[in-house]
Amino acid sequence: xxxxxxxxxxxxxxxxxxxxxxxxxxxxxxxxxxxxxxxxxxxxxxxxxxxxxxxxxxxxxxxxxxxxxxxxxxxxxxxxxxxxxxxxxxxxxxxxxxxxxxxxxxxxxxxxxxxxxxxxxxxxxxxxxxxxxxxxxxxxxxxxxxxxxxxxxxxxxxxxxxxxxxxxxxxxxxxxxxxxxxxxxxxxxxxxxxxxxxxxxxxxxxxxxxxxxxxxxxxxxxxxxxxxxxxxxx
Length: 234
Description:
By secondary structure, the protein is of the alpha+beta class. Helix content is about 20%, strand content about 30%. The protein has helices at about 5-10, 15-20, 55-65, 150-165, 170-175; strands spanning about 30-35, 40-45, 80, 90-95, 105-115, 120, 125, 140, 140-145, 180-185, 190-200, 215, 230-234. Strand 10 (about 180-185) and strand 11 (about 190-200) form a beta hairpin. It starts with a helix and ends with a strand.
């Protein structure tokens, strides 16, 4: 019986994407799944010669490089590939490539809110128009992927400082325990399977996020239909 790593990697990778991998048979073999007469998809198996974590990581990295612009938005950030959350990874791959290979990815998101006169107001961010994913769309005050080698708690504290200027003295004391949201999105060559660990953080009433990266923060109610900004409140 084959080791699980030779079976599980790309069970739900879209067949229109695996067509671009056929020449990389030194890394993968393509297995066609059948349900009666109808093909329902394809998956890939690693070449058995790739026995170590590093060998698999390097081989997949080379394939991604060869694919060029087929996978846009390369971030040089590694995502772990596992059978389940929290178990040791079999290898890691470029974050932007995860949905193309059908890899389940994880992220951390945070709702940052303030209480004013008994009402809760939610800080909302607007993504940069230059972002490769969801440009110009509204977002949480803090959001980021969960890269290899860092816990959810440490990652959300890091993202708080980097994306919104929220100091650890606030995020470590007032962040709630996370809850999880999972979703699937199929578009083009991508089969995106994400699980997000979501946190709530009560901020001081006078706190104003610092635009450390690519967000515009919403401070006032906006009613103009042409604007992308609004203030969310209970």
